[in-house]
Description:
Elements: H1 2-11, H2 17-42, H3 58-76, H4 78-93
Helix pairs in contact: 1-2, 3-4
Amino acid sequence: xxxxxxxxxxxxxxxxxxxxxxxxxxxxxxxxxxxxxxxxxxxxxxxxxxxxxxxxxxxxxxxxxxxxxxxxxxxxxxxxxxxxxxxxxxxxxxxxxxxxxxxxxxxxxxx
Length: 111
């Protein structure tokens, strides 16, 4: 989404350079927060008294790998999802074959 906003801001008839700069700066700042969390989680040695990590079930590992692969594919190839969504749009917005107005269903009775 950020990529499309950045692309649109720079390709606008009057380029929105300030918006693009703010977008890039906020992305860099947020990446700093995320990378710090990853560093704390994975790049520091374990304490000696830390409990052993239990084994992850195979089904959980499969779901994690499938989710990560889907996120990577959609992140690297966003046009793929947009193309499939656009292919279904005409069916959703096609005019109805029926003419006139359909009758309303009867109102519910609360007696």
